[in-house]
Amino acid sequence: MAYQLHYWPGIPGRGEFVRLALEAAGADYVDVCRGDAQQGLGLPAMLHVLQDASVPRPPFACPFLVDGRTVIGQTAAILLYLAPRLGLVPQREADRLWAHQVQLTIADLVQEVHELHHPIASSLYYEDQKAEALRRAADFRRERLPKFVSWLEAVLQRNPGNDAREVPRMVGARLSYVDLSVFQLVDGLRYALPKASRRVLKKAPLLTALHAGVPRQRRLAAYLASGRRLPFNEEGIFRHYPELDA
Amino acid sequence: MAYQLHYWPGIPGRGEFVRLALEAAGADYVDVCRGDAQQGLGLPAMLHVLQDASVPRPPFACPFLVDGRTVIGQTAAILLYLAPRLGLVPQREADRLWAHQVQLTIADLVQEVHELHHPIASSLYYEDQKAEALRRAADFRRERLPKFVSWLEAVLQRNPGNDAREVPRMVGARLSYVDLSVFQLVDGLRYALPKASRRVLKKAPLLTALHAGVPRQRRLAAYLASGRRLPFNEEGIFRHYPELDA
């Protein structure tokens, strides 16, 4: 049975980290909210799982994955579940745990990127918290972004064999879901904060090489060129507000 | 060999979620940063793992756990690793994944509690972002706290058998690490935001019963009465600033 991915239909957001894994592995999946409500898909199908009291183990939020009777929320937990089934993580328990740990740290950074434009409340418009966003973004560019990027670069530096690889890997020697997530993360940062990203990435050659190399994987290249790939936009997590960049 | 827990010595913070699991299981562990630097413990031992380039897989931040050659960062990942070894999670993969998913959602709430007093930057004092904190806290009390609490209550309601249990369980029929984390979360919320917490907990009888019942477990009761249990304080994540409560 096909995997069902449930996520907001108009933004890449957190759903894209799962979508990239499904696409890179050539997995059979349904992008539920982008389907037709007449066929039991669309937003109502997602809202049912989130809101109906008959669901025994309701996710707190999307994205979530439905695989038969299993419902899994939390982006990193979805990838922890999917990656062994898709061949996108090494076999050893220690490697899988390390991959998950890196993924959770990526999730923390993604959350901070969201807080950039919503430092006060997700329930308010950006325009209603712009003064606070300007302050938060200045700190993010100065303190947080360099800290996360230098950690990601250190992970790449310390992964044995990366000096000899054309495309470095985050965990192990082969493409893993963590590489896909790092690709998406760097892509989003370059969209949202082009100036600040260019500055920090100058000091991160392995991360830059990973971002350039990952999308050359055959299936991923086809996906990225397709209509299934959603562009970044100002409804999502990675938003380009020029006043927040410098 | 004893587990090594690495975390800031003066606050319960995120380290407490791991400590509660170790204590409830009666595990052999060393609380590294609270030990003596003369004996190779204390803060320098933690900073070595975080900062030394010889560490092959460095955590991004504390808490982290060292178990022989395995180093695990990210609170929820530490508990994912530890719980089966400590007998604090059901056996079935689906149950473990659900427990992890709930734990990751608790982690999201803990992060929002931190952002309450640091909405602009962790690198600034609370006093330097108090105006923003007042605004953020108002939204948190009105929107976010009730949403998280009603989800936690729904998880308890939908866990079969909880009506008949004196102390309800988050996952399965026996005490799990998720119960311990929820206990700590409710404890922290009651400390930080006593008025807002009282209001939302009135509508969450199972959550209230869990919080009251968990600390009666024998080992946990001994731990909570010991000097090993750190009190909440205004250096930690759960801080009581009366102006943020209402």
Automatic annotation (TrEMBL), chains A, B:
PROSITE patterns: GST_CTER, GST_NTER. Residues 92-244 form the GST C-terminal domain. Residues 1-90 form the GST N-terminal domain. This is Glutathione S-transferase. It comes from Ramlibacter alkalitolerans.
